[in-house]
Amino acid sequence: xxxxxxxxxxxxxxxxxxxxxxxxxxxxxxxxxxxxxxxxxxxxxxxxxxxxxxxxxxxxxxxxxxxxxxxxxxxxxxxxxxxxxxxxxxxxxxxxxxxxxxxxxxxxxxxxxxxxxxxxxxxxxxxxxxxxxx
Length: 134
What we know:
Blueprint: H1 3-14, H2 18-25, H3 29-37, H4 45-55, H5 59-62, H6 65-96, H7 103-124
Helix pairs in contact: 1-3, 2-3, 6-7
Organism: Ruminiclostridium sufflavum DSM 19573
GO molecular function, one term: DNA binding
Keywords: DNA-binding
């Protein structure tokens, strides 16, 4: 389930409208509509935190696999790892443009490539000079 669908389900489950949600999390109505239709995602992690806090859920529930991958890369390898992961996700997304793969197949390809990223990072540790290893 994508972020927008999750947000819409949470909002409807709580019985509030988009305007009330926008006010609660400190964004515009247009922004909430964009989130729910899948046209945009929160750019700042604090918005995810506000949404999770408002609905009393774990923030990880809101993250898509791609966002979670980027966040994990940042935690493990810093800003450079996050940038590399974001570039990988963007490039992989371009592979699917205009294609005829099912969503399940796209997810499988994405997971495989993300696993290849993690494997490559682990393999490259042996080539990192000792003074730069943690």
